[in-house]
């Protein structure tokens, strides 16, 4: 397996993610959240920081401007975990936790509870 930088969001504006998870990373400027999973028909991926998320459509936009569509139920993927392990090391991450879509929405709303649809 190898690591590579994905195509620019201008060339790949939407990415369909299967066997996905949401990971919350502790950081000096507050926590950030990232999608981790397998791009359908391709390889594992770790997204840049998630900046918006709609739990009804299960779609989120990241700092890069790419829109991720989360397909099916959360899961794990060996290639995505491989990419994640390198991403964590490269970015000096010492703490992270799994997060739910509900937790993601709450975090993006500034910690305010968001009622379920």
Q: What is the rounded distance between the termini?
A: 40 Å
Summed up, the helix count is 2
Oligomer state of the chains in this structure: single chain
Give a count of the beta strands, DSSP E runs of length 2 or more.
7
**General form:** globular
Supply the number of structural domains.
Answer: 1
Q: Average pLDDT across residues?
A: 88
Name the beta content range.
25-35%
**Helical percentage:** 10-25%
Helix/sheet category:
alpha+beta
| Helix-strand sequence | EEEEEEHEH
Q: Rounded to an integer, what's the Rg over CA atoms? A: 13 Å
Task: Explain what you see.
This protein is an alpha+beta fold and 117 residues long. The chain has one domain. The protein is 18% helix and 34% strand. Strands 1, 2, 3, 4, 5, 6 and 7 form a 7-stranded mixed sheet that branches. A hairpin with a 4-residue loop joins β5 and β6. The longest helix is centred in the last third of the chain and has 13 residues. The C terminus is likely disordered.
Q: Which secondary structure elements does this structure contain, and how are they paired or packed?
A:
Blueprint: E1 14-25, E2 32-39, E3 44-46, E4 50-54, E5 59-62, E6 67-70, H1 78-90, E7 96-99, H2 101-108
Parallel strand pairs: 1-6
Antiparallel strand pairs: 1-2, 1-7, 2-3, 4-5, 5-6
Give a quick precis of the structure.
The chain is of the alpha+beta class and about 120 residues long.
